[in-house]
Amino acid sequence: MRWLAACLALIPGAALAHASERMVILTLPTGWYMLGAGIAVALTALAGLMAGRLPGFRARVLFERRAILSRTTISWLAAFAFWSLIATGIWGTRDPLGNLLPLTVWTVLWVGLTLASILFGNLWRDIEPWTGPARTIRHLMARTGNVGLSHLCHWPAVAGYLGFAWFEIVSLSPADPLDLARVAAGYYLLILALAVLEGEDWLERGEFMTVYFAMVSRIAPFWAEHEETRVKTMAGLPGAQILRLPPLTPSAIAFVTLVLASVSFDGLTETFWWLARLGINPLEFPGRSAVLGVNSAALLAFWTVSAALILGAIRAGLPHETFRQGVGAVMLSFLPIAAGYHVAHYFIALLTNGQYAIAALNDPFGRGWQLLGLPDHWVSFGFLTTHSGVQMIWMAQFAVILGAHLLAVLLNLKLTERFPEADGVRAHLPMTLLMIAYTVFGLWLLSSPTAG
Amino acid sequence: MANKSTPLNPTRRSVLTGMAAGGALLTTGLGARFAQAQSSEPIRIGFQLHRTGIGASYGRWYERTATAALNVLNEGGGINGRPVELVFEDDGTDPKRGAEVVEKLTTQSNCDLVMGTLFSHVVIGSAPRAGELKVPYLVCSEGHHVASGMLNRWTMQPGITDVKSQVQGMAPFVTSNLGKKITMIFPDFAFGHDHRDYFTAAVAAQGGEVIKHIAIPPTETSFTRYFPQIPSDTDVIYHVMVGPAVLTFVKELGEFYGSGARPQLFGFIDSLEAVDINSPGLEFLDGSHFWEGHPRYKQADASEHEAFYRAAVGVDDNGASVSDPADIATYAHMFSTWETLFVIKHAMEAAGYQGPADRQKIVEAIEAMTDFAEGQAHPQGPKTFNGKTHQTFGLQSITKVEGGKLVRVHQTTMEDGFYPDEVDYTTMSF
What we know:
The structure holds two protein chains of two kinds. By secondary structure, chain A is mainly alpha-helical. Chain A is built from 17 helices and three strands. Chain B has helices at 12-16, 31-34, 56-75, 95-108, 120-133, 163-178, 190-205, 246-257, 304-313, 331-351, 359-367; strands at 43-49, 84-90, 113-115, 137-138, 155-156, 181-187, 209-216, 236-239, 264-268, 289-292, 320-321, 324-328, 371-372, 383-386, 391-394, 397-402, 405-411.
């Protein structure tokens, strides 16, 4: 790399700006929005404290029906779809925005399914590809025992998510169809083997996608509750599910802080501010290979700092004797923030790469098909350069970030009601300050200048 | 490993339905067109695409333009009677991946050559690998790195002029028509330094003077505090700001001068490539001048080839996508992929190219080229190719913002962009 760095330092050439929504957003008065959001969070906390009465967050059954297909059957279908996508990644087009594997993983699942799950509950449960095959294989092997993986709680999922975040944010070619196919296939086989050894129920503890979607879907206003052959469709205020959850275990706390930190870090690494810290000119960003090492270390450091800040704020708010039992409950109030950050951060990717995903369905094998009847040049990004388009995107992101934090503040007030020994103002001040800071930081990430 | 597509003409929907790349071409009635070839194997051209990373916005239009050119090429009988495929591979706008992509395209995808790279650092990171693999590497970068002599015999830039030539070509117009006392505002890194050095020298040669250089740190996002440095006797402000703060730069410059008198403004369209010139905040640019490699707005005297090119790529008369008037093309640069593809066609045909064993002949054939006439293969205009420096030279346009459009007021001569050779690649070994 040294010779390359030397070349780059010496050789001028084309440095080309390009249109991005940041160009327009820098002309918007985003500072006032940040100030307003911070004040709104503070006032909500204050009002909640003074009101003495908080929303009930009750849940109710909308309707109940029989399950149409067994979970095993659905999961086998999902496994078939998964391997079809792997085949597409290996033998399909090399273009990551034309190949359905990267489009499905990074846009449809990671962004689209998260958004859908935040609205309609844990949809991953209905499409995860391991339960059926693991159950069948265990049945064929007449295996009923386990190897004790469940004692590791959520730690395997934490490790899985960390690897996933590194692959997405730091590694050189996460969207390359062949690279992604190899990684996804390897991960699938590893998890399948572990699920066969331990039992498919372990997935809910140890597989990071399963844990992730279960967590973010807890803020959904609609969700399903499954029994043997029946499905109840439920409704309630966002957060209604969260208040019915048991306190998070230490490994689950680690998982939530990692989700929060990784999305923030993804945004941070693209900012001028971060690149300036690394001594890199953002106008000629030399590519991921130049920051691979430093961003790998920084991802871990950022997670550590984020976790320390969150736990520190909880610790500062709870009496010493209450902290151990209270931290797992209070951490639940961060689930809306994790979900909100994710939606806001990936919103533009959904609007842009989502078009490529639809276009790829229109012509999945690059044969000139028109399965969906889309015209030529259907993919279009003009909205990223118009004042009105960028204003609408910013407003949506602002609403999501602010809404997530207001919900988090309310949930925090509600959850700390469980600990009467926690004095009102003292208990809530550190957390409220952290929520304000997180709100402003989230909006700053979305509006500050970035490379690319 | 499949390529993305090999659509054959602008009405590909009707032609291509159900057709696979490669062998299936012969089942669609197009086989006769390619029947004269000694081999019916498709020619595979690797395209190093900035699909992700900071070059992605350019990559989108480069892919679209190259695909349109491919349609036209195949409709006209392909190369040497053989159909042509483009194999797009993402380099992440990263030089390390760029070198890997060159290797993948050459050794795994069995491409006959590699083309299409835009960003200079990726070109510089990839070219050595192309040299090691002995595969022709045709870049569309406009950097001076090819003609400067720092690359190798296998790397060529036949489809777009380099920045040194472009900047030098602007000087006579600026000093003759806008003024002789010039203040330059540029980002303080290599790109800006290029402009500073080339333009300052070119202006001096024309009897003008750059009276002030204002270098802006690359991470700067507010510029008001720099404007008082502009000398009051400045005739022309030459600006080449790039990055996400460009709209802010123009807006603040407008606020600095208000409605009072201001110097003439001259800029490079690189600042506003893919940005609507009528965006809020850009009103201050009304009446100012720009360099454009290829005028975004269709000019009154546009050739039939220009009209054909726009229709094939799907760009309207305002330089926007035909499917979205707000989606502005990277029009000043993307023609280079189109023209490069046709240079490849002519080179392969001149060399009697049969397969990878003939790769050296492609380089030699291009080195032997001297002129490209304006036409369907070269819609941007005529060019002179310098086989020794592997660099093409062409006509540059100076446009003026009038009535919300960029209207050409001057076109340089070929000679305006010439400079003494800095290398003779033909003396280097393969």
